[in-house]
């Protein structure tokens, strides 16, 4: 690891970003162009102290779980993200591993779809990012979607037992497909092992060896402030990427569309 090179890269990439590029308000009080260290730390989910140590060459061996969010916060290209991993002494994700990097163009799509809830998930259904309306609709739980369901955590989504069974079968089939595509992805296979250990239902489905891609569905979210909202849920694969956009929409002019608009007006507070 070249701590000095890593430090220079992080500072340079931070300085080239404007607040507007990451959805932050501009301020006339800024002394220089670029983002403040505190802003990047917030976007990446890191402490300001730890980011300061990285930028000053005083921190050693940052993990992939640190570098991935940093690459997203700094809007790095694929080549820049690979360089970030290399100067940190790590091998960039390659063949056989899920690429969880959000490119600047996908981030712009997420930023601009402000009037519909949108999430970005990877091939293992790990939440990578979501917009403000998705947080308002579904809450701020950022764990893996499958882990949350099979562990029995409460969910605002209303389903019949038959719908739950169909959804579980689809998830497991999709995860089998991912396991075949990404044989060297550690987090994916750790997730599968955890799910098999925690959930007899998942374990039984897994042994049936289903293989299929997840399909779109329709679901009702029982929101504590605006009531039930029924939406179409479409899962869009990003070409050339291991990411998916999960988009929730309702027919224009429908009560559900009006409920989504109301939710957007209320704001992004957690209920």
UniProtKB/TrEMBL annotation:
- PROSITE patterns assigned to the protein according to its UniProt record, in alphabetical order: HTH_CROC1 (PS50943)
Q: Which SMART domains match?
A: HTH_XRE
Q: Which domain of life is it from?
A: Bacteria
Family annotation (SUPFAM superfamilies): lambda repressor-like DNA-binding domains
**A Pfam family hit:** MLTR_LBD
Offer an example of a GO molecular function term for this protein. Answer: DNA binding
Record-annotated HTH cro/C1-type domain positions: 30-81
Instruction: Kindly give the PANTHER family that the UniProt entry links to this protein.
Output: BLL4672 PROTEIN, BLL4672 PROTEIN-RELATED
Name by which UniProt lists this protein: Helix-turn-helix transcriptional regulator
Q: Which organism is it from?
A: Solirubrobacter ginsenosidimutans
């Amino acid at each position: 690891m070249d701590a000095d090179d890593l430090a220079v890269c992080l500072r340079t990439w931070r300085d080239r970003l404007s607040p507007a590029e990451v959805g932050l308000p501009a301020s006339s009080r800024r002394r220089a162009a670029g983002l403040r260290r505190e802003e990047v730390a917030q976007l990446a989910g890191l402490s300001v102290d730890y980011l300061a140590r990285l930028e000053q060459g005083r921190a050693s061996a940052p993990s992939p779980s640190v570098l991935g969010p940093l690459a997203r916060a700094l809007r790095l290209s694929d080549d820049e993200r690979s360089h970030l991993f290399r100067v940190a002494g790590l091998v960039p994700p390659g063949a056989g591993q899920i690429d969880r990097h959000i490119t600047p163009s996908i981030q712009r799509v997420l930023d601009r779809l402000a009037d519909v809830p949108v999430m970005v998930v990877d091939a293992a259904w790990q939440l990578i990012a979501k917009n403000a309306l998705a947080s308002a609709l579904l809450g701020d739980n950022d764990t893996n979607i499958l882990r949350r369901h099979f562990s029995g955590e409460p969910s605002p989504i209303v389903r019949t037992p038959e719908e739950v069974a169909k959804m579980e079968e689809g998830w497991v089939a999709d995860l089998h497909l991912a396991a075949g595509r990404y044989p060297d992805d550690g987090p994916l296979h750790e997730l599968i092992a955890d799910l098999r250990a925690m959930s007899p239902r998942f374990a039984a489905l897994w042994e049936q060896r289903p293989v299929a891609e997840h399909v779109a569905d329709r679901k009702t979210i029982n929101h504590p402030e605006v009531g039930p909202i029924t939406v179409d849920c479409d899962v869009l694969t990003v070409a050339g990427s291991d990411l998916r956009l999960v988009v929730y929409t309702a027919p224009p002019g429908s009560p559900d569309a009006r409920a989504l608009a109301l939710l957007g007006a209320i704001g992004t507070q957690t209920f």
